[in-house]
Amino acid sequence: MMLTDVCKKRYSRPVIPAVLISLLLLGGCNGAAVTKVERGVLKQSIDVTGELVSADTISMMPPSLRRVWQYQVKQLAPEGSEVELGDVVAQLDTSEQSQRLSVKMAKLEATTQDIETSKLRNAKRLEELRLELAEAQMNFEKAQRKFTLSDDTVAAIDKVKYEKDAVIAKDRVILTKQKLELEAQSARQREAMLMGDQQKFAAEVDALKRGIASLTLKAPRAGMVVYGNDSQGNKIKEGQSVFMGDTVLSIPDLNNMQVNMTIPEVEARRVKLGQTLKIRLDANPDRVFTGKITELGAVFRNKNQEIPLVIFDAVASIDEVDTELMRPGMTAKISIDIANDEEQLLLSLDAVHYDGGEAYVLTPGLFGEKKRMITVGKIGKELVSITSGLEVGQEVLLP
Questions:
Q1: Alpha carbon of 96 to those of 190, 238, 350: distances in Å?
Q2: In angstroms, rounded to a whole number, what is the distance separating the alpha carbons of residues 177 and 60?
Q3: Which of its termini does the chain have fewer beta carbons within 10 Å around, N or C?
Q4: Distance, C-alpha 8 to centroid of its chain
Q5: Can you give the pLDDT at residue 329?
């Protein structure tokens, strides 16, 4: 006779002794909660936190300028604003570069003026030497004729004098020619030196102009503005100094979002590429997104200086991106599914007790509860797998 029959039926006379009836009523009809052993797939997951990022982000940094390592942000486009290709999204301070440009332009202008002045001075000096050469040539020719035309009527001493005058005049011509050649060579060298300075200053002026233009950051594509972070993790703001290599702002592709996660070292063995996961944004926890793990970090690290927890990084894709809701930098809670498809005997986790490290359950009996030793397999959030000690459909008491 079943226990439920005892509870539902009323007997007119004592067919069963009164003591036994009392035990049945106390043991089986006391309203204790029970559960049953079922066969199914144990759901297991690892809960971690993550942050949304774009898989395709263009980061905008200060330009690389000679002798400049620190830049001041003068103006920023509002974060979250939509910009078009070529729109100005940030303006860095140009005062130092503008001052250098003024100095270099002044030197360029002065050098250009020196070139013109030098050309005029050299031309004048060369013209003077050419006239001097012509005069020396004329004097030589006169002295040469005088010596050549001298005859026996000319005293010997005068003839010697005419000869010496011709030689001196000829040497003067040679000397003047040398002076003219040296002066022309010197003029060319001075002009070349000044032209070199002019080219140098012109190149520096051109570089400074390009550098000043590069301090105006323009959007390389249409998209949404997202501010970068400084070394302290704070958002970049106007008036702040940034360094070469710092991301001032970025323009992400919102259609290609992914989630970056940090996973504790102890879970490394259970996390694999391709595992599915559920994503709940802290900004909208009621909505669940799905995705898969696409990258696993190869290096373990400490989470931060304050928390010495060893973690590794992982990246997951998002199956259906909501461009209206999702924004880079949003935090999320992620549940990684680590269950397999193998069916097992499952029991409520609350029904399992432990005594000295040995697992057991309490089963209902005709004369009260009975202790039954079991072997526990994998443990989920609400259920546990049973490898021995129970069968499918068997009832177990809940606490």
A1: 33, 18, 71
A2: 65
A3: N
A4: 73
A5: 87
Predicted local confidence at residue 31, as pLDDT: 62
Please state, in angstroms and as integers, the Cα–Cα distance from residue 361 to each residue in 97, 350, 366, 381, 394, following that order.
79, 10, 16, 18, 11
Return the residue matching tokens 């233009």: 213
pLDDT of residue 343: 85
Extract the tokens encoding 341: 């498809």
Distance of alpha carbon 330 from the chain centroid: 17
Longest Cα–Cα distance of the chain, Å, equals: 193
* Assigned token pair, 180: 């003219």
Which pair of structure tokens corresponds to residue 160? 């010697």
**Whether 347 contacts 384, CB under 8 Å:** yes
Interatomic CA distance for residues 256 and 221, integer angstroms: 15
pLDDT (tens digit, 9 = 90+) per residue, 362-373?
A: 999 888 889 999
What would the two tokens of residue 378 be? 């994998």
The string of pLDDT tens digits covering residues 251-292 is: 999 999 999 999 998 888 889 999 999 999 999 999 999 999
Q: Kindly state the percentage of the chain with pLDDT values over 70.
A: 91
**H-helix segments, the chain:** 3-8, 18-28, 95-149, 156-214
Distance (Å, whole) CA 396 – CA 380: 18
- Phi-psi domain of 18 (left: phi exceeds 0; alpha: psi -120 through 50; beta: other): alpha
| The two three-digit tokens of residue 295, written as one number | 């990258």
pLDDT at residue 3 tops 80? no
Residue pLDDT, tens place only, 175-191: 999 999 999 999 999 99
Q: How many angstroms separate the CA atoms of 195 and 231, rounded?
A: 47
CA 353-354-359 angle, to 5 degrees, is 85
User: What is the per-residue pLDDT for 322?
Assistant: 93
Per-residue pLDDT, 337 = 86
Q: What are phi and psi of 374, to 5 degrees?
A: -135, 165
**Phi-psi domain of 282 (left: phi exceeds 0; alpha: psi -120 through 50; beta: other):** alpha
CA distance 229 to 291: 27
Look at residue 148 in the predicted model and tell me its pLDDT. 82
Residue 386, strand partner residues: 345, 376
Contact 239, 72 (CB under 8 A): yes
Q: Nearest CA to 215 among 96, 298, 134, 301?
A: 96
